[in-house]
Amino acid sequence: VAEVKRGAGPKVIQGGPATWSITQESFTDGLRNLGWTNMYEHILFSALNTNDKAAINEDDLKWLEMEQRRQKRKELAKKKALMEMKRSTNGNWKVAEAVL
Q1: pTM higher than 0.70 for the full model?
Q2: What CA–CA distance (Å, rounded) separates 16 from 37?
Q3: What is d(CA 85, CA 92) in angstroms, rounded to the nearest whole number?
Q4: pLDDT digit string (tens) for 22-37?
Q5: Under 8 Å CB-to-CB from 51, ≥6 apart: which residues?
Q6: Nearest CA-CA partner of 23 in 6, 39, 10, 8
């Protein structure tokens, strides 16, 4: 097990370059280094640690990539709907923007 410092905080790397894991302590330190002040880091870690292991890894975060893509599609659809409303409201874009 090697500890590698990248940007915001330490990450514990196990195995080859495609496999990594982060312990709760490293997760907490990383959040705090990023400016997290809301506490409850242990609850966040537990929520991400779906397999109740000593560390989380990329398998525990697969849902995040899908959620990011879903959010991006949602934002694009919202922008497209706003543009369509702007066109259909004869230039009264404030009405269209207020609706969304």
Answers
A1: no
A2: 33
A3: 9
A4: 999 999 999 999 998 8
A5: 59, 60
A6: 10
SS3 85: helix
C-alpha distances in angstroms, 16 versus 12, 13, 95?
A: 12, 8, 54
Question: Which residue has better confidence, 6 or 54?
Answer: 54
Between helices 24-33 and 41-48, what is the axis angle to 10°?
Answer: 120
pLDDT score of 41: 92
Distances from the Cα of 8 to the Cαs of 17, 50, 67, in angstroms?
A: 19, 24, 23
All residues at 6 or more sequence positions from 86 whose CB lies less than 8 Å from its CB, including other chains: 93, 96
Classified as helix, coil or strand, 10 is: strand
CA 47 to CA 29: how far, in whole Å? 17
State the amino acid at position 50 in one-letter form.
T
Query: Two tokens at 30?
Result: 């990383």
**3-state SS, residue 56:** strand
